[in-house]
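Weekend entry, working from home. Most of the wet-lab plans are on hold until the incubator is repaired, so I used the time to fold the two sequences that have been sitting in the queue since the last round of cloning. Logging both here for the record. First:
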Amino acid sequence: MTHSPQSSAVSTHILCPALIPDASISASASEIVAGAIQDLDRGIIVGTRTYGKGLVQTITRLSENASLKITTARYYTPSGRSIQEIDYSHPTGNGEFATIPDSLRKSFRTAHNRTVQEGGGILPDSVVNDPDPSRLYQELLRKAMFFKYANRYSAENKTLPEKFTITDTILKDFEEFLKEKKFEYQSEAELKLRDLQDVAEKSQYGKEFLESVGRLKTLAGAEKTVALQRNGKEIRKTLKAEILGRLKGDKKRIEGTLQDDSQLMATVALLKNKKAYDALLSGKKK
């Protein structure tokens, strides 16, 4: 995606905003590209902090069932900073490794003299976090309910309208599908209340307190009956993606969900706001 402003302090640059949608998938090569764009002030990085994989490993086969993996190189961005998050030279003693603390991260300068730091991946110039997924949504994903429903829907519907959306009817049908599959989960409230009840019982709390917790658990269970509607936005988005992918392929799946992508929408808004864009890229010349 490119955008050329009419006139500005950075009008000689090709402004390529890099969208970093999720730290868990933006790693290694994508981080190097994002770091280069940021260091050279050729665009704005939008999204969340990247994963922080700045090492290159070479794998040597030792035998039929054993290999040796050795770190043979490191990635550095044009300013000279490393993007590596985990410090493998300092094990914690329990099979894990330390990360570089913020106090020890070195600062570097971009082409416009903006300050950027090493380690921990690439921190976007404009941070746009996606909302945390609900417990219901996580369990639907974990148990492949979106995938399974999309399979059934595609078997029953061979075509889709040009502007396909998840209607209330489809959402209701998905709800019935979950009942058929006997889908069950525990909400965050139920999990917290279960922990509270365990603590109360171990601490020998009074009968009245335990009965109050029991009533809250009943209310929390009743709330699950409307959880699908309450979390409708994220559920509709994923259902739409799954069904489009099944019936129209990956390209249409991606195209059909772009309008619901908060990070993409923030990127487009930033491209349209030339003053804000230039302000993010501005800085003293070296």
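Second, folded right after the first finished:
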Amino acid sequence: MEQFVLDRIFDPFFTTKEIGQGTGLGLSVVNGILEQHNGALEVQSRVGEGSIFLLYFPVSTQEINNTQEVSTPFSKSTEHILLIDDESIVVNISKNMLEMLNYKVTAFTNSDHALTLFTDDAAQFDLVIVDYGMPVMNGKVFADKVKNIRSNIPIILCTGYGDLIAKEKINQWGMDDVLLKPFAFKELSTIVRKVLA
């Protein structure tokens, strides 16, 4: 890989592939998993020759007890998340990330359809994640309508306008947190868990 590619390979949504052929999240997710386990990742690459990825996980100091049930990194969750973003690629990637964390996810690219479902059965959802910059109905308008139906539902606003939407404004709008695009697996996991807790 050339240096400018090597410098960005762990950036969420960065890809050198054609549109529709890659999400740019694979290495970001791998890096996030390693960080969660206090591990590290090293890359060696030469243009025209190939690349080597070295993944380092810390050695456990615990003794293995064969009578104990082996735990998984993420316990099975019962939480149901409503996810809305007008970009289908962002919806698909975010949905996959959340499902990797064992959440049940219902995702929409159309805010009107999402609102209809929420109106019909608001009690089925534990969290709403909504994009701010959507056509027809932006994230704030959507959140207002959702809060009018169920005032205690937690909401995370997802946005690429981080400098324009301060945390203080999010609180004034009655939302619980903001997730800045592009986000990594670890950031999504941390914010969702914090809001649901």
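Plan for Monday: verify the second prediction. Residues 68-75 have pLDDT under 50 and may be disordered.
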